[in-house]
Structure formats: C-alpha cells, structure tokens
Amino acid sequence: MNVVKSHKATIWILSLLILLIAGAILSLNMGKVSLNPLEVFQVLLGQGPDEHNLVVYKFRLPRIVLAILVGFGMALAGAVMQALLRNDLADPGMLGISSGSGLMVLLIISTVSIQGTAITLLLPSMAFLGGLLAAALIYVLAYRKRRMISSTRLVLTGVAINMGLSALSLFLTLKLDDQKYEFAQRWQAGYLWGDKWSYISLLAPWVLLLFAYILSNFRTLNVLVLGNEISIGLGVAVKKKFLRLAIAAVGIASGCVALGGSIFFIGLISPHVARKLVGHDYKVLLPTSALIGALLLLVADTIARTVSFKSDIPAGIIVTMLSVPYFLYLLMRSK
Amino acid sequence: MKKNKKLDDRTTVIPDLRGKSYFGLFLLLGILLLLLSVAASISFGSASMSLKMAWTAIFNFDPELTEHQIIHALRIPRIAADIIAGMCLAVAGAVMQGYTRNPLADSGLMGVNAGAALAMAVTLVFLPGQLQTTTLLVSFIGAGLGAGLTYLAASLNRSGMTPQRLVLAGISITMLFGAVGSFISLNYGIGRALAYWTSGSVAGATWVEIRLVIPWFLGGLALSLFIARSITVLNLGEEIAKGFGQRIVLVKMIATLAVLLLAGVAVALVGPIGFVGLIIPHIMRFFVGVDYRYIIPASAIYGGALMVVADIAGRLINRPAETALGIIFAMIGVPFFLLIASKERRAFK
C-alpha cells in the first residue's frame, strides 16, 4: 500500500514539475509584445535580436521566475503552518505576516520618495522585517507560560493583529498622494513588483535553503500534526521543533511577501489540493504543495500580464478570485 | 398572552441574575450619558456654540442666525447619524452573538462591510455623481449580499453552522469581495475615494439620509426587541431551545433579517466600521446579565452614546483634520478582541 502510494506521489510530483516548466515556456511566449515559440527559442539559444533579448531577459523571464519562487514559498509556508497549528485553514495571510509587511512598506513610502536607488533595497528588507515582527507579536500575545501553544489562540490572535495592522495601514494610506497610494494598493493586493534579477538572486537561495531545512524535518511535521501530547509521547521535543519550523515558515513567507506583496490564499489552497493528490505524508506533501503554489501563481500572473485591463492588475487579486470559491467549497464539505 | 405566561413559568432556567430596578437604573445612566455626549457634540466644533444656543436652535429655530443654521444643517444630522449607527451596530452585534452563540460575532467579520464596500466601489465607477439616496440604497443591498453569502457558505454543510465556520466564511467572503473591489478600484482609479469611505465618517450626514434610514432602523430595532426573549433561550443551546418548543428556524430567520436591516443602515450611514458590535454587547452582558431582553435595549443606548463620544474623539485627535471612526474603533477594538478571544476560546473548541 505504502509503496503504491509513494509511487503515485512521485508521478504527481514529476507531472507537476513538467507542467510547471511547460507553463513557464508558454508564459514566455505570452505578453503585450507577442513572440512566437521559435523566437523565444532563438533568444534562449543566444541568437535572438536585441529587442527580443530585452523582452525575454529583462521583463518576462524574471517575472516568471519570481512568480514561481513566490508561489512555491508561500505554498510551502502555508503547508508548514497548517501542520504546526493543526488547522487546515491556516495560512500566512491570516497570521498577520502580510499585514505586518504591508504596514512597514506603507511607513516607508509615506516618509520616503518611491523613486531612487536606496529604496530598492530598503523596501524589501523592511517588508521582510515587518512580517517577522508581526509574527513575533502574535506569538508573544498568544504565548502562555508553562502551557502548550494553543492553535486556536494563535489563529484568533492572528485575526485580531491583522485587523489592528490593517487599521493602522488605512490611517497611513489616507495621507498618501495618488501615485504613492496606487503603489501601496498594488502591493497590498499582491503585485509581483520585485522582478529584477538582483532581488531574485537574493530570494532564490533563501527559499531553497529553508525548503531543504523544512523538508528534512518532514518526520517531525508528520508527528506534530497528531497533536502535542502524542508528539511528546513519541519523543519529539515539541516546543523547540515548533519554534524552529515556525521561524522557517515565517522566514519564507516574509521573503516572498517582500517581493510579491500580500498574496493570500496560495498558502491556504495549495496544501489542500496537494493533500487530495498525494495524501498526508509531509515527505511528499511539502514538494507537491510547493509546486502547486508555483503553478497557481504562474498562471495567475500570466493572466494578469496578458489580458489587457485598463490598469496593471496584481496577480494576487486573480489568485484570490480563482481560489476563494474553491475554499468556500472546502468549507462546505469540511466536518 | 396566556401562553407566554405559561412559558414564563417553565423558563425559570433563564438566569435572571440582576433585579429589574438595577436594570432600570443602568438604562437611565446610559440615557444620561447619551444626553451628555450629545450636548458636548453639539457645542463642540470648529465654531463653538453655547448649549443655550443649541437649545434655542432646536426648539426655537431662527433661520436668520448662522449659528442656528450650522446646528440645524450640520451638527444635528451628524449626531443623529452617530446615534442611529451606534445603536444599529451594537444591537446587530448583540443579536448576532446571541443566536450564533459566537462571542466574536460582529458585522465587520460577517461579510456585511465587505459587501457594502464592494457595492460602493461599483457605485463610484458605474453610477458616478448619484444622489445620496442611491448610494445609500446600493450599500444597503451590498451589505445584504455579503451577509447572505457568508451565512449561506457557513450553513451549507451537513453538520450545520459552527462559530468557527462562520468566521472563516466571513473572512473568505471579505477577501473575495475585497479582491473584486480592489480590481475595480485599480482599474478605474477610484482607490482613494473608496479608502475615505471605508475609513468611516459621519461628517457628511444630511437630513435626507436620516429620514431615509429611519424606517429601516426602527424596523430592525423592533424585530430585535421582539425576538429578544427567544434569543436568550436559543443562546442556551439549540437542544434546550427545542425542548422549550421554540421554532428555531423561524427565530434565526427573524434574527438574520434584523441584523441585515441594522447593519445595512449603519454601513450605509457611516461606512464599514467594525468592533462597535463586538464591544458593546460584551460590556452590557457584564452589567445586566445574560438575558437578551436586557442586553438589547442596553446595547442600543450605550452603543449610541459610544458612537457619539468616538465621533467627538475623532474630531479632537489630530486637529484640525478628522480621524476616521474606523481607525478609532480599531484602536479600542483590537485589544478588546484579544481579551475576549483569550477568555472565551472554549466556544471555538
């Protein structure tokens, strides 16, 4: 039985990987300047004309890579958080990380001009810091001495902190001028703005390193899902492991939010779909949900890039519109 | 009447903890507080007025005097909007908390505000420059749509509606509507206009609006008072309520209708403000006990007073600019939410 299952999981992971690569290639062909597959192929071989090179290397490819990375990271963070909180409906957005980063970004852009070189490094690093701070605040508020961390408590605290941070954000938002306001609004809606190779080269190792760490702890996650008491009975140092894995998940999510804005729901939906495909073993669940997240955001961003709306629509909006109906369906089916 | 009497004998289960005279006193205190805050609100403003001036403006209106006109055209409608919205939000919160048995229920969490905000975005783009009455009506409909979808999503389940499911459905409907709303506002560049409305303000309230919402407001209030007793029974649990022969579905339907009317009125008047409906009923329960026949009227009075006071605070902080009501209530509401969540998390197990 087990062998059959892991066989099935391998097939799923492989086909998702192939789908992702195919999707990326397809996405390279699509956009406001149309390039046919042959032209893209030429560019990739280093034989394209300059303007095609520019479109592919400067605009399209970094955005695609970023979408894949952010989707991958958010889904991974969601999967870990759902295990740690033993709550299928937890995600990085609900736990205040996104609103923490969002607030920090607003603080920066309401005090500093958005143009300039310093801002390009300041924004993502402050967003990262904001996410970590929000998560730490929630943890401290939900913490009780000599007691296990209750997941319900964490979730409710997260909801409250989220509302408070959103109100503060609104307060700052009202003072911005139109141009800054639009930037802030895009950020909050999940706009993949950090599509420069310099950013990506920072995010990619971060996500991959933490992915490796989390994946190497799949056994701990499998046990933690069963509950604190059982985990202790099985000899897992719950508090220590919980904290380390939580920091890893928050680290990934904050990094992704820093470059991709508040993209809700990827972290929530992807693990659910993954569980349906490969079951509950975190060894295969982690890579599967990460790949699904990457695919989902790639598709959403390709839609955002290709369909011509009046304005540049953030991918996060499309992700939310695509996945909330599915989430509500899950809610109706849940026991 | 006779039947009610009989029911009274049987339902001594309902703890009638505090005496009637105590409740009367508490209510009187609330009315006093309300009157005081109204007086403060009238005389306070960019042009200070004496209370005597306010008194003559109300009861002896002289259209020749500028002061009278300011009071009549600006301050009184504003205060009326405060009181109506505060009462609506507090009573809607009390009813919601009672019949869903969810201590954290609040119109802000149940899709009402998100629905109204989306409707407002649609209005700003597709019906620009409309009369206030149209805007009012549209946000009313939006509020109903948001709440309706949230309830539907939370209750379409074999095991019925649970508090946690309701909160999650509310969050997801809010997110969906929020996404559609920001799509519209980015696409048509109405973000800031929408943000102003979202932040909550009574500054622009007019007599026309007040007159328009009063029937709905009174209707929602009457319905809430009418089912107050049934909510108390329902709050003891559905099994017990069934044991008393209560028609649960009917009560829930009336309660939902009341909440929709009240929350719709409030959101149409002052914008999507959270937390009033969360805070007030909790404080009332602390003072008057668990009987909703007491909680609902007390929530109405104190909710109205709190809103008037918050509006004054909004004008005082950060002068001469006004601080939005939504921000003031979030500052009070978040610590309060945390407190309740830590006390009553049993409800979520």
UniProtKB/TrEMBL annotation, chain A:
Transmembrane residue ranges:
12-31, 64-85, 97-115, 121-142, 154-176, 196-214, 221-239, 245-270, 282-307, 313-332
The record ties this protein, via InterPro entries, to: ABC_BtuC-like, ABC_transptr_permease_BtuC
- What are the subcellular locations of this protein? Cell membrane
According to Swiss-Prot or TrEMBL, what is its membrane topology?
A: Multi-pass membrane protein
Gene Ontology CC annotations of this record: plasma membrane
Into which family does the record put it?
Belongs to the binding-protein-dependent transport system permease family. FecCD subfamily.
Q: Output this protein's name.
A: Sugar ABC transporter substrate-binding protein
UniProtKB/TrEMBL annotation, chain B:
Q: Which Gene3D superfamilies match?
A: ABC transporter involved in vitamin B12 uptake, BtuC (1.10.3470.10)
* A GO MF term: transmembrane transporter activity
GO cellular-component term (any): plasma membrane
Q: Which UniProt keywords apply?
A: Cell membrane, Membrane, Transmembrane, Transmembrane helix, Transport
Name the residues that span the membrane.
21-44, 79-96, 108-127, 133-154, 166-190, 210-228, 249-280, 292-312, 324-342
Q: Where in the cell is it found?
A: Cell membrane
Has the keyword Transmembrane been applied to this entry? Answer: yes
Question: Which InterPro entries is this protein grouped with?
Answer: ABC_BtuC-like, ABC_transptr_permease_BtuC
- List the GO biological process terms: siderophore-iron import into cell
Does the keyword Cytoplasm feature in the UniProt annotation?
A: no
- Give membrane topology per the record: Multi-pass membrane protein
The family annotation for this protein states: Belongs to the binding-protein-dependent transport system permease family. FecCD subfamily.
Query: What is this protein's record name?
Result: Ferrichrome ABC transporter permease
Taxonomy, top ranks, is: Bacteria, Bacillati, Bacillota, Bacilli, Bacillales
